[in-house]
Amino acid sequence: MKVNNSLAIVTAISLSGCVTARVEDAREATTGLNDGESVVVMAKSYHQGNETEADYINCVESALGRGSKGLNVIPNQNFVDNLFPWFEPRTAPADTKGLVKLMKRPGVTDAVKKMGVRYIIWLDGDTERVAQGGSLSCAAGPGGGGCFGFAWWQNDADYEASVWDLEGYETAGTVTADFSGTSFLPALVVPIPLIARTQSKACKGLAQQLRAFIVSDEKA
Questions:
Q1: Nearest 5°: phi and psi at 159?
Q2: Where are the domains of the chain?
Q3: Which among 9, 1, 7, 57 has a CA at the least distance from the CA of 218?
Q4: Of all residues in the chain, what percent are helix, strand and coil, respectively (each to 5)?
Q5: Over the stretch 88-129, which tens digit does the pLDDT of each residue have?
């Protein structure tokens, strides 16, 4: 049985531009972390030939581990190196059936247990510019110069995190984050950028929901 939870759509307009956000999770199994257990964040989108941005993975890792309630996060590269070559892009399991087969290989289960990894979080998605408009011109002359006009652009950050439980070799569920941000650049002599930090907000929103999802004792 799946249970869907969502955060309400929120729109904020300030000096950081306009951002609309939606974060949801769909649970398939009970989750929780015991003392000494860790999580690792991996890129899944290489299966489609478009690897999730490395800086976004690093951001989610950092956000998951931050604060007094932070999770123990094994750095992505450490995990890949310790399990070489089984989590390289060409050999990593594409689903939990492949995970079961992989865990039966000599040394794999022992390496995972040694690091204390309980959950693999597979990230998929990207941030892209979907629209833009306006015009801006700048000029310089003997008496000085300046920029005049107005420009805008919209970025969409759309990410999905699949949570695999290595205790039962099953999918615990998914968490999705969809953030749309519009940035503005008005200029009357001096340009004043009003930037919507779409990707960073998507990182924080996804990490917050992931942390609540993993440590929750909610039953599926």
A1: -135, 150
A2: 16-215
A3: 1
A4: 25, 45, 30
A5: 878 889 889 999 999 999 999 999 999 999 999 999 999 999
List, in order, residues 6 or more apart from 84 with CB less than 8 Å away.
none
CATH assignment, 16-215:
3.30.160
Q: Alpha carbon of 172 to those of 15, 28, 61, 98, 137: distances in Å?
A: 38, 5, 19, 16, 52
Q: What 3-state class would DSSP assign to 24?
A: strand
Question: CB within 8 A of 210, min separation 6: which ones?
Answer: 60, 64, 121, 161, 163, 175
CB 43 within 8 A of CB 77: no
- pLDDT per residue over 167-189, tens digit each? 989 999 999 999 999 999 998 88
Low-confidence ranges of the chain (pLDDT < 50): 1-3, 6-14, 47-49, 217-220
CA distance 110 to 117: 11
C-alpha separations of 24 from 3, 85, 178 in Å: 10, 33, 9
CA-based radius of gyration for the chain? 21
Query: Considering only CA atoms, which of 160, 163, 216 is closest in space to residue 30?
Result: 216
Which residues, 6 or more positions from 99, have their beta carbon under 8 angstroms from its beta carbon? Answer: 93, 164, 166, 169
What distance in Å separates the CA atoms of residue 8 and residue 193, rounded to the nearest whole number? 28
